[in-house]
Design a protein that fits this description.
mainly alpha; about 80% helix
């Protein structure tokens, strides 16, 4: 068991539930349908990667390699950058704030961290003899 992955998965999963409910009940009144869809994409990917964190935490018992720890870190960074930007940008746009081009690079960078997390999980699994 890798407790940091399990703790992060549980906490970020709870956050996804809270933000999903907030988006479904409160944001639909102030966001356009397209903006709500962007927000919901953030919630969905947050959830996917909470399950990945929980799996990483459990798999560590059988695959006790540094790759699992790196994958955990990458999944957390991915959630913060990818999902965080998809939570933030629609709300800022609805309030009349523009998002600079450099800000729009945060989302794909978060996606890259998700990919790196899955790669680290894969590498850990194939390392085992």
């Amino acid at each position: 068991m890798y407790k940091p992955a399990l703790v992060a998965g549980a906490l970020l999963g709870g956050l996804a539930v809270i933000l999903g409910a907030f988006g479904a009940h409160s944001l639909k009144q102030i966001l356009t349908p397209d903006q709500v869809q962007v927000f919901e994409t953030g919630v969905r990917y947050n959830f996917y990667h909470c399950f990945a964190l929980l799996a990483a935490g459990i798999l560590y018992s059988s695959f006790p390699f540094a790759n699992i720890r790196w994958g955990t870190l990458f999944f957390i960074i991915g959630i913060i950058l990818f999902s965080g930007s998809l939570y933030l940008f629609p709300v800022l746009e609805a309030k009349g704030f523009g998002i600079p081009v450099i800000g729009r690079l945060i989302t794909p960078l978060g996606g890259l961290f998700f990919i790196l997390g899955w790669l680290e999980l894969f590498l850990s699994i194939i390392k085992k003899k």
